Amino acid sequence: MNKSDLIRLAIAKATEHNRGGKMTGKTVLGLAVVGVVVLVAFIAYRLILVELITSLTHK
Fold first, then answer.
1. CA-CA distance, 54 to 47, in Å (whole number)?
2. d(CA 53, CA 39)
3. Which of 4, 7, 9, 46 is 20 to 30 A away from residue 31, measured at CA?
4. Membrane-spanning residues where (predicted)?
5. Does residue 4 register a pLDDT over 90?
6. End-to-end CA, the chain
7. What does the alpha-carbon distance between residue 6 and residue 34 come to, in Å, rounded to a whole number?
């Protein structure tokens, strides 16, 4: 084996591990649900914070 064959073999072994990882429909749906929950929680937090600030300024 010469140097280029060794380099080619090393690259093939390094990228062999990264070929998996297909995303199924359940994975995409789960990520979408988590994203929606985080977005709704952030909006609720902002609304509560705005309500708290406006109630403090009126007193």
1. 11
2. 21
3. 46
4. 28-48
5. no
6. 83
7. 44
Q: How many helices and strands, by DSSP H and E, does the chain display? A: 2, 0
DSSP structure class, residue 19: G
pLDDT value at residue 19: 64
Q: Please, how many CA atoms are within 13 Å of residue 43, restricted to the half-sphere of its CB?
A: 6
Q: What is the pLDDT of residue 37?
A: 97
Residue 15 above 80 pLDDT? no
Residues 6 or more apart from 1 whose CB is under 8 A from it? 9
pLDDT tens-digit map of 24-51: 888 889 999 999 999 999 999 999 999 9
What phi and psi, each to the nearest 5 degrees, are found at residue 24? -90, 175
